[in-house]
Amino acid sequence: MSILSVQNVNKSFGGLKALDNVNLEVEEQTVHAIIGPNGAGKSTLLNCFVGRLTPDTGSIVFNGASLLGIMPHEINQIGVARVFQTPEIFADLTLLENVMIPALATRDGSFSLQLWSRMDCQPDIREEAEHVLRDVGLIEQKDVIADSLSRGDKRRLELAMCIVQHPKLLLLDEPTAGMSRADTNDTVALLRRIGEERRITKIVIEHDMHVVFSLAHKISVMSQGTVIAQGEPNEIKGNPKVQEAYLGGAH
Ligand SMILES: Nc1ncnc2c1ncn2[C@@H]1O[C@H](COP(=O)(O)OP(=O)(O)OP(=O)(O)O)[C@@H](O)[C@H]1O
Ligand SMILES: [Mg+2]
After folding, report:
1. 4 pairs with which residues across the strands?
2. Is residue 188 part of a domain?
3. Residue 112 is part of which domain span?
4. Which of 166, 187, 212 is the last residue before a domain boundary?
5. For residue 84, is it within any domain?
6. Bridge partners for 226 per DSSP
7. Who is most buried in 25, 28, 31, 144, counting CB within 10 A?
8. Residue 85 domain-assigned?
């Protein structure tokens, strides 16, 4: 069954057609990779899923509900979480605090400073945050200030901040960008484990083909705003249209 259904989505920036009649079905509890050369429209599409951008035309339906015209925090509330292309964390706070904030926001509907002042008397939230930090391998550093983490660990922290919200759908824009091979392999293993244990559907935008082919059940290939191919990894590997898009693109 599809958890996300994208139909005939178009989005232009001035004269540039960033999304040109995009159609996409994401099956529940799978990892769906979106690949394609720079400027293909991958991040634009993801921004439409989270309400940061509104398509000019078309429909986006998540779990039976239209995502169009809904505010980003409401989309988040119904089960869509996103890891950004550059980590978005609270740099001056500890890891534990970083994870407790989205946990509180999820439980109470929104986050306010009042919640923050009550954070010390939230043992259940603290426990859950610690559990998630343990899951991503950061429990030893729970009282460390987030800004001092390595890039790879910041990504892990961001992932913890997402999964503590119990999303049904997790969107990851280049989760291993800028990572060493070792950090990349750790992240792939972590994503796989988290997907299986928590039954989270994932959409991953990724340039690293090693990551794509290790994680994805399905791959959609975008080029110049359109999905030019869609299928299982071994179908995509040998597709001449895909090779052409990469050779003709910026890569
Ligand atoms: N807010 C914006 N205003 C104007 N043009 C934009 C905007 N966002 C994206 N674009 C343009 O839309 C096209 C698609 O961009 P997008 O960022 O979606 O590509 P991408 O596939 O994510 O590329 P990359 O792999 O480099 O991240 C590009 O030509 C880009 O310059
Ligand atoms: Mg992008």
Report:
1. 26, 62
2. yes
3. 91-166
4. 166
5. no
6. 223
7. 31
8. no
